[in-house]
Amino acid sequence: MLLSRLVLAAVLAIATPLAAETVADRATTEVAADKLGEVLQLDALFAVLRDEGLAHGTTLEADMFPSGGGAAWKDAVSAIYDTGRLRAGFDAALTEQLGADPETVDAIVAFFGSDLGRKIVGLEIEARRAFLDTAAEEAARVAADDAAAARDPKVAQIRRMIEAADLLEMNVAGSMSGNLAFMTGIAGTGAYGPDMPEDQILSDIWGQEDQIRADTSTWLYAYLGLAYAPLSKDEMEAYIAFWESPAGQRLNAALFTAFDRVFRQVSHDLGRAAGQAMQGRDI
């Protein structure tokens, strides 16, 4: 958290070495946030994440209250996926994890600021944008199955990439955490009745684990297959090497922490809004 203007003025007034160090540390973390946001192209990524969220809201409306949530539901979903709010929480979490480690930040910026790094991030964002079209996603799934059947060497590289970044397990954990937050949000509105026990919610979530893992694995191979199709073997090897490096491991952990913190709250807010809409109450 940034110091308030009043507290900052008081700290500067006593001008102790500790105060100067604190201000310098704050400036360092702000620079780290700016650098990471730029090379990871977070503005473009969160624009796509907002579009994904709005599409998800439409799907929830059709599945959970077919008579329609009306303008109130759309407004609620739009507010929940406000990019300014999401970025503020995400940036804070990311810099909390990495801001005090300038060497790691420099290594991350060096890789993703390179021609190859910029190319890779652009391809990943383009693939997420493409997946907004269900036909494009289905085509990517078919292409991934065909590549696996043909023993395409890039499939093995993608598998190593998934293992290096622990993408399957961390995405499964994130999905289950999000589902728990969503159901807890609904339960809090009384939509499941007044006495929905927490252990029942947890049991329902754990009962979905195998299906979530299977769906996540299928999605990963389709998405990464589409994103990395233009990359050469050597480019893929360089990217895998980055994720296997200490800086890559630190970034990976920080990204999942930041995404989990922000989107767990998003899931809870969506659940609460859905529960209210299911009961015909104002959102």
Describe this structure in words.
The chain is mainly α. The protein has one domain (5-278). Helix content is 82%, strand content 0%. It is built from 14 helices and no strands. It has helices at residues 5-14, 17-39, 42-64, 70-80, 83-98, 102-112, 115-130, 134-149, 153-164, 167-187, 198-206, 209-227, 233-244, 246-278. Helix 10 (167-187) packs antiparallel against helix 11. The longest helix has 33 residues, at 246-278. It starts with a helix and ends in a 5-residue tail after the last helix.
Could you name the key traits of this structure?
283 residues; mainly alpha; 14 helices; 82% helix
Question: What is the topology?
Answer:
Blueprint: H1 5-14, H2 17-39, H3 42-64, H4 70-80, H5 83-98, H6 102-112, H7 115-130, H8 134-149, H9 153-164, H10 167-187, H11 198-206, H12 209-227, H13 233-244, H14 246-278
Helix pairs in contact: 2-5, 2-6, 3-4, 4-14, 5-14, 6-14, 7-12, 8-12, 9-12, 9-13, 10-11, 10-12, 10-14, 13-14
Write a concise synopsis of the structure shown.
This protein is an all-alpha fold. The protein has 14 helices and no strands.
Helix share of residues?
over 70%
User: What is the oligomer described by this structure?
Assistant: single chain
Alpha carbon gyration radius: 21 Å
By DSSP, the count of extended strands is: 0
Query: Which series of helices and strands comes N to C?
Result: HHHHHHHHHHHHHH
| Broad structural category | mainly alpha
Separation, N- and C-terminal Cα atoms: 30 Å
**Molecular shape:** globular
**Annotation field: number of helices:** 14
Catalogue the unreliable spans: 1-21
User: In total, how many domains does the architecture comprise?
Assistant: 1
Largest sheet: none
Give the percentage of residues in beta strands.
Answer: under 5%
Query: Quick check: average pLDDT?
Result: 88
